[in-house]
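Translate sequence into structure tokens.
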Amino acid sequence: MTVLVTGAAKRIGRAIALRLHREGMRVLIHYSTSEQDARRTAQDCGDAPLYRANLENVTEIRAMFNEIGHLDALVNNAARFTKFDVMSIEESDWDFIHDVNLKAVFFCCQSAARIMQPTGRIVNISSLGGIRPWADHVHYCASKAGVIMLTKALAKALAPNITVNSVAPGVFPFSQKEENDPRVAAMIRRTPMGRAGNADDIAEAVLFFLKSTRFITAQVMAVDGGLSQR
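Result follows.
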């Protein structure tokens, strides 16, 4: 299976790429600006091919997929995250998030579907923020809620040849500083499983959708330790 992981240079994207490589899949590494990290991930994935594209630019997205030529699976992981008081959000702040978090996800799905023959699988990384509202992240929540509905609509539009599912991470701090943030710490305390998530948790969920029965599509898996049910 040949699978493209967007935003695979570091953090969750890197973990997904490494897990899929260990599973024996041929992983393609996308990055935008983190070239050094992307090269390290590619090396750790058996000298995987590298593809650079600015996901804000649909022309670059389409050029990347044309260069790839054939795919069995796509993992839309690349995303942005910012915090703003709702009354401070400007058009540029909104576009900064939505251009990558939502618009690019659609055009990557569209481009991937064109080169998936005869069948394919798509996994979109959404977020707990697309399920539950966060007051300081209105623009982000809207983008990730969009990814969830996009996943469901595309699953119908691309059936029966292509499955489309989503993984929604909960609390995933990537540093001690993030974990010690009072708001993050409070969310971790409310998580029934009693801990924050880690990148490997997400990678395992992605692997499930890539290897499970093709009768599973249009589903959103919350990988959040039960937090979404609190």
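Note: Strands lie at 2-5, 26-31, 50-52, 73-76, 120-125, 162-169, 220-223.
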